[in-house]
Amino acid sequence: MKRLVVIYCLMLMAIIFTACAPPPALVKLQPPDYAPKFNVVSGKLSKDLGIKGALLAPQGEIKILTVPQPQMGMGLFSMIQPATSKTQMKSESQRFPSQMNSNLLKSIEAIALQKGYNVVSAYDSIEVMAYEDKKKIDLLIIPEIQLQEEGNIVPAVETPKSMSMVTIQKGKINYTGQYKVTGQLIFQIIEPLTREKLFIKSVPYSTNPVDIDVIVEFDKPDQIAPASSIAYQAQQTAITNARNQALENAYEKLIELVKTYLPGEEEAVNLAKQAKELKTIKRY
Prior knowledge:
Elements: H1 2-19, E1 25-30, E2 51-56, E3 59-66, H2 76-80, E4 90-94, H3 98-114, E5 117-123, H4 131-136, E6 139-158, E7 171-191, E8 196-206, E9 210-218, H5 224-261, H6 265-280
Parallel strand pairs: 2-5, 2-6, 3-6
Antiparallel strand pairs: 1-9, 3-4, 6-7, 7-8, 7-9
Helix pairs in contact: 3-5
């Protein structure tokens, strides 16, 4: 009788312990929530070179990587094991974030002013420029930017090694990887009336990689499915944070490239001279 009571008490304790076990927990998310800052460069006309310039809004796109949601199979083991060692990521083309695009245009205008260009206007495209604007503007600055996200996300699940499903009591789901942005800045300066290219420069660049590390822990077999869901959602958040961090870094690098490669005084004056000559031979 006493033996049955002891067994009953042990069973009751096991049930209570299992019921009180904590739910699946997100124990690590890297990088943390990150809002990108696209700081505007300030500047004014330092020395008027007698050049009337205009800008086109930055052209181009960014190709982002998307990670599909993992498909759950039948049975416990297929739910916690990834189908492949590396998640297949797809590339989708998107426009730049509006704040990044707007601030980049303002910053390029400020840099042009600092170098002596009298920037009179900015346009979304050359097609919206009026004929009179094309006649009075010497140089049209066209920044084209191509960005491509690169990276990998490797999902892995660690559980105690056992042939019996019942004994899998604890484990963790771990998504790791890196993200970075590569691309090139293509700088063109044209005479807007004839659309003749006077200057072109293509510069490749790459941002620093951003680590992604997501860990979700569980300690009961029936927590594996919700743990997988938490891990996937946290993974998406980590990718967004890494993207934001990489885009901010890309923006800063683009600003430095514009400062370096936008033609300075001597070259800019020579380009404006060529532009004026082109206008005189334009047949109307």
